[in-house]
Amino acid sequence: MAQRMIWNQTAYFGAGSIEVIPDELARRGFAKALVVSDKVLVDSGVTSRVTDLLDAAGFAYEVFSDVLPNPPIANVQAGVAAFRASGADVLIAVGGGSPQDTCKAVGIIVANPEFADVRSLEGGAPTKNPSVPIIAVPTTAGTASETTINYVITDVERQRKFVCFDPHDIPVMAVVDSQMMSSAPRSLKVATGLDALTHAIEGYITLGAWELSDLFHLKAIQVIAASLRAAADGDADAADRMALA
What we know:
This protein has helices at residues 21-27, 39-43, 48-57, 73-86, 97-111, 186-205, 211-232, 236-244, and strands spanning 10-13, 32-36, 60-64, 90-95, 134-138, 150-155, 160-165, 173-176. The protein is α/β, with parallel strands linked by helices. The protein folds into 2 domains: 10-181, Rossmann fold (3-Layer(aba) Sandwich); 186-244, no CATH class. The strands form 2 sheets. The protein has a 6-stranded parallel β-sheet, with helices on both faces. Strands 6-7 form a two-stranded antiparallel ribbon. The longest helix has 22 residues, at 211-232. The two termini are 28 Å apart.
């Protein structure tokens, strides 16, 4: 039976790795970015760690910071409108799972306008075009949305969440910088670390597991078990390991 692995075109790991973003934007020929984040990250200065680099490089951007936890359909619709109004040609997701998931949905709808009804993306939607290019910068070591084809949107009207999975939505580049996670509260580091552990265990015991996936999931379980407590207490090396896991 054929097994499929879908990867980012490029992934960077390690403290300070966000510094590659301006050069990568230039190398890829982009002209303007829409940075998708949330108000907490903007107000706390986390998002500005990325936008300061863009400012220093003279790279044009706008910020969409209206993302809510468990992003609702309305968030996605507002993000699509913001992207179209901005004239951007690339998305930069800065945040945990909610900004990452919102960014994926926005990128898919802009590239596939026939799926403007966000509910139509549920499950494996038959989109034809790759998403608007996404550079994903996670601020938690948890969901790993930056390296997957999955995202979750909340349907407030029907009081449910729905999962979307689409090979076209995977970010072209993931930048996993543990320093972007350092200011998170200890409780959030613990919660997202346990989320990562749960994903790793699920991946290992699922009926779809195979030799290559086992390598990643077993290693992730080992790293998280050895690193989560220290990372939550502020150890930089442990935080690096958690970001990698």
